[in-house]
Amino acid sequence: MAFPYSSGDVLTAADLNNTFGLVHIDTFSGTGVSAANFDDVFTSDFDAFRVVIRLRAMPNNLSMRLRVGGVTSTSANYNWVMHGISSTGAALSSSTSSTTTFVIQHTNIASTISRQGCVFDILYPNAADVTTYMGNAQSYNSGGNYWTYNIGGANVSASAYDGFTIFPSSGTINHTTSIYGYNNG
Amino acid sequence: MAEWTRDELVALYPDGTINVQENHEVRPMTTDEWSTWIDQQVGLEKPADDEPPA
To answer: How much is the pTM?
Structure first.
């Protein structure tokens, strides 16, 4: 049945499966965690995934690594870029090649009330090929600077992954992380 | 920026206060995990302690 539907239409499963653009996979929350592992979230039902992370009490940069079968990949296959500007006009430009983690948030403040977050897409993590991500982040740094920046990168391993982990480079985080799949129809 | 010492970390994060998360399960680190984690934090840069606007 063609979208948009009309009053009186009787929808089938096929209609519904073709309707939704983003499908909620799971939402996780943790307080005072040094690392949060999310497994079996990159299901074969989807090729691309949206990740939304809301953060409190993040004292330092937030990193991400890919996982498969409950094991975190720590090989030096991660390449990442972060580029943006602060509310006081300072430039943020940071990147690293062939390293052991993605960096997805930039901060340096211990405050438990700091409000930070990021939204990004991960493409084809469950394919035996390069896994890429790209999105945006916002964080608060010492000295009154609100930062907004693009984030992105690639894991160049020809491995398939079913999950990921997030962790601050020091200390612990309070987070809520939601994962969605892009419906292929 | 200052760096963390072990004494400062132990005072800030006593045994039993650091959690690890496996999907929906959040549990405190064991004492061995906590001790290893504390050792890994020693020498890392301390975050700033100013507050953003409420």
So the answer is: 0.92
